[in-house]
Amino acid sequence: MKSLAEKIAPDAIKKLIPYQSARRIGGNGHLWLNANELESSCRYEGQQGDYQRYPDFLPDQLANAYLDYCQTHTETIGCNTVAVRGADEAIDLLVRTFCQPGVDKIMVCPPTYAMYEFCADSIAAETIKVPLLANFQLDMAAINGQLDAVNILFLCSPNNPTGNIIAQADIISLLESAKDKALVVVDEAYIEFAPQTTVVGLIKHYPNLVVIRTLSKAFGLASVRCGFLLADESVMDLVTRLIAPYPIADPSAEVALAALTEKGISQMNAQTDDLITVREWFAGELKQLAIVEQVFCSSTNFVLVKFNTATCMYEYLCSKGIITRNQVHEPALSNCVRITIGSKESMRETLLALKETEAE
Question: What is the C-alpha to C-alpha distance for residues 174 and 178, in angstroms, rounded to an integer?
Fold first, then answer.
């Protein structure tokens, strides 16, 4: 019996022979003359390692380290993982693997991360939009009514830019509904801020579930560009056919591996706890301001704030040298600004700037 992944993947992907890079072909020996690499590394100031060789085509050590990390929150994973160049590449790979250009469709639930639609647009795949309800939860009836028409449903939990958790019972219900229809992709970029809500443990029960992760947020490694896809083997087999020859640079892998050690994870957890404390304090202070209509509950490292002023608060804060994220492009988020949580000093400065506009 064919898996769902095999059913919905275009023939071009199923027939695709992965690019056979020198590192992928591999071999045993001590003299490596197969990849047009320099025999010895050039040494540059500040360099830590030898970088004349191409990296592994799929860095197993990094993938295994990430699986070990995932199991700190989930008893058994029961899935495969692959390291990619950030969550954005993971999204792009999924769309290109399972959507035929100009034919297939994806579904998103705005307001949410814009890259899902962007990647679909890049291959002329249509995006069906089912807006979130007023409480930022899923419109289950509307999603189920159109699930037959799509190959991939993208969900983000905790969601960007709203900051809330999508009800896990709804995700499970959709996995059941989509079992023989579509992949359900859950983007968990901010999961370290609400680790108990992860759905990674469900992959062993639902091979149509794919989870996206990243080291860019809580781990603070945005410039390293290291993300992960977690999925059933049937899905991963097809996705990895499309991955570029050398997806993770060795310096990036070295930093990522250090982050995934016991010491690195402990440091990340401490930083995350501090950010959550600052976030809750900042949200409480915002609620005291007359110009603030609502501060939405957040399970991320940002807060979404709705203002009640005629002044564009995004532009006002910019004038004070404080750059936030304007949400004016989202119909459901008029007068909303997304504010990343920084140090307590940075948030005090932001509060002071907001208080000044009340006095003007």
Answer: 6
pLDDT value at residue 16: 84
- Please say if the pLDDT value at position 45 is more than 90: no
Long-range contacts of 111-114 (CB under 8 A, 24+ apart): 111/159, 111/161, 111/162, 111/327, 111/330, 111/332, 111/333, 112/154, 112/155, 112/156, 112/159, 112/160, 112/161, 112/162, 113/154, 113/156, 113/159, 113/160, 113/187, 113/189
CA count, 13 A, side-chain hemisphere, 23: 17
The C-alpha R_g of the chain, in whole angstroms, comes to 22
Residue 354 DSSP SS3: helix
Q: Which of 134, 185, 139, 187 has the alpha carbon at shortest distance from 159?
A: 187
Nearest by Cα to 81 from 98, 102, 58, 99: 58
pTM equals 0.93
Residue 50 is predicted with a pLDDT of 83
Confidence of residue 246 (pLDDT cuts 50, 70, 90): confident
- Burial annotation 283-318 (CB, 10 A radius, 16+ → b, else e): bebbeebebbeebbebbbbbbbbbbeeeeebbebbe
